Amino acid sequence: MRMSLRAAATLLALLNVVAHAASAAPRAARTDCRGQAIDDLQRLSPRGYEIYEAVADKKQFLTWVTCDDLQVGLATGVHETVHVLTAERDAYPLIDGSSIPRPHELSKFFAPREIAKKFDAKDAYVQNYLSSRGASSKDDFMYLLDELNAYSHDLNSSSRLVPLQRHDRQVDQRDGLAALMTFVMSYVETAQQSKPATWEGLQHPEPRHLVQTLWKQAETTLASSCGIPDFGRNDRTYIASLCDPKNGKALTELLGRAPVCARECLEPTTTSSISRTQ
Ligand SMILES: [Zn+2]
Questions:
Q1: Residues 175, 234: Cα–Cα separation, whole Å
Q2: Between 226 and which of 7, 119, 265, 268 could a Cys-Cys bridge form, CB atoms 3.0 to 4.6 Å apart?
Q3: Are 179 and 222 a contacting pair, CB within 8 Å?
Q4: Is residue 217 part of a domain?
């Protein structure tokens, strides 16, 4: 599930369309951009296009593509389709085209909602992924990792779709992945401190390899987006937390190395370092 501020904006756009449709001059949502949008996805984000290509139900992907904001619509389509493929294949599809099976033993680990109290209850990502009213990720670490993977694909695509970006609104493309990485780091830290069964379970070969793989993919994706200025709203808060060594001790043990700090994302915004076509 993708319930970021961006998704809320998309929903608002859809509701506006519904409101227009109900008015005296009914009109359908604009869909005439979709063919071109998929061509743009293939050209600018081949990995995102592979996700589109892999799913059988193209119509479902296209429902996320509103002509109002192609960058957000396409990245959201990729995000949601990663969830679809993960469920269908019982495996996490990775950005490099490979996939990694879901170890169902993760569902026996402690519920991620138990770490919600460590974060700001008003934060949209805390509410959507950790709070009692949130998505299935609040109950099951397997689904929290599903979100980490989906947001990695999401940011990877939106970074490459920058040429389609609207410049008349604030964006939060980087927030989702930064938030999910912070939640996973905190979850592992809590496991080591006070959840011995989960901490022991995380050491098993499959869960450990999975966390190592998804984390590396996430940190590579986050770091490679840092050259894009103003690509988030609260991303710096999350990234500062990720870069604080005292928060990453347990994850360091699990990864067998220290997490890489996306330091460049914390530097003052410049427009000269941007790499808009990577
Ligand atoms: Zn999601």
A1: 6
A2: 265
A3: no
A4: yes
